[in-house]
Amino acid sequence: MSIEVRNLVKQFTPGLAAVRGVTFRVEAGEMVGLLGPSGSGKTTLLRMIAGLEAPTSGVIFIGGRDVTRTPPQRRGVGVVFQHYALFQHMTVFDNIAFGLKVKRWPKSRVRERVAELLALVRLTGFEHRHPAELSGGQAQRVALARALAPEPGVLLLDEPFAAVDTKIRKELREWVRRVHEEVGITSIFVTHDQEEAFELADRVMVFHDGQIEQFGPPQQLWQAPATSFVASFVGDVNEVEAEAAGGFAKLGTLRLPLRHPARDGQRVKVLIRTTDISVSPHPQGAAGQAPPVSGAPDVPDVVDARVRRRVWKGAADVLYVELAGGVVLRAVVPREVALQVSPGAPVSLRILDYRTDPL
Ligand SMILES: Nc1ncnc2c1ncn2[C@@H]1O[C@H](COP(=O)(O)OP(=O)(O)OP(=O)(O)O)[C@@H](O)[C@H]1O
Ligand SMILES: [Mg+2]
Prior knowledge:
Layout: E1 3-13, E2 16-26, E3 31-35, H1 42-50, E4 57-62, E5 65-66, E6 77-81, H2 92-102, H3 107-120, H4 136-148, E7 154-158, H5 166-183, E8 186-190, H6 194-200, E9 203-208, E10 211-216, H7 218-223, H8 228-233, E11 237-245, E12 248-251, E13 254-257, E14 267-273, E15 277-281, H9 283-287, E16 302-311, E17 316-323, E18 328-334, H10 335-340, E19 346-351, E20 355-358
Parallel strand pairs: 3-8, 3-9, 6-7, 7-8
Antiparallel strand pairs: 1-2, 1-4, 4-5, 9-10, 11-12, 11-14, 12-13, 14-20, 15-19, 16-17, 16-19, 17-18
Helix pairs in contact: 2-3, 2-4, 3-4
Bound molecules: adenosine-5'-triphosphate and magnesium ion.
């Protein structure tokens, strides 16, 4: 079922809106990842769609039907929240069956549906356990089964795996996508983990200060960030202040042509993704005789720097490199480059792409 929201506002306290006039549409069967800083209004938005919070103004449609004043249990929405704990005194079976019993499903149908869901979440055989006898990942899968039991048209997940360790999280993530595809449900998924959002979602919504900064496919957010906020929020980005001079942003010896109009002497913001810095070791560096960083060659995009720190991360490593003038940038480099430089080694940098914005 599609979800449509028009001019949605939520004001908890006068003059201070948590959600400030939001309009969007999620198509039936789509999976949307919702990203944004803490306090930006993500949970409030989800709670309004679920009917757990009444909007101050605006309209919500689910499957084309205006549900703005419909009680939660009649919206056809399933929710999984991070802290939406299972009923501790009930077995896995009873937890999953809970919503079905409320709806007075006949016993045999309840049994069938619970068995089907346990198979879907790979927990067949766990029906008689209590939540205290489950791992965190298993408990969240039961929570998901419980949310899916009454066959909702929409599934809302609010940081469902925040409390689970990285490895299990990755498994759960793949598994949620599979469930999403098998059931064909429309989902909105809040996460603080960008990798999770970009891996799972058909489209990603970036929320900031109660408003949508951008809503589009992952590729669009990466390649065409709509705002300075999105450019600095998405991915791993160096954000540094620089001074405008003669159409350039001056970062020590590095001079980058300004991408926005600025007067000489004005402070500007420069955003450089860690993956947009190419680092080449100087041949002398390998011999251990690090020459001092040379004075400024006035080439805008190649500049000398020195390695400050090296971080081993696996497929790609991170170098902290210092430009003349003290600016330190983080660069993601291939393992073979990281192996050639140690702290103190001189290197050349090339900035492959960047963005400048007013401060
Ligand atoms: N019941 C409430 N009463 C008053 N203010 C609230 C209430 N719930 C949320 N807020 C405020 O609304 C704003 C948005 O909160 P919300 O929980 O939606 O943020 P969030 O994006 O989910 O943050 P997080 O990532 O930390 O979960 C915050 O400033 C918060 O303090
Ligand atoms: Mg929240």
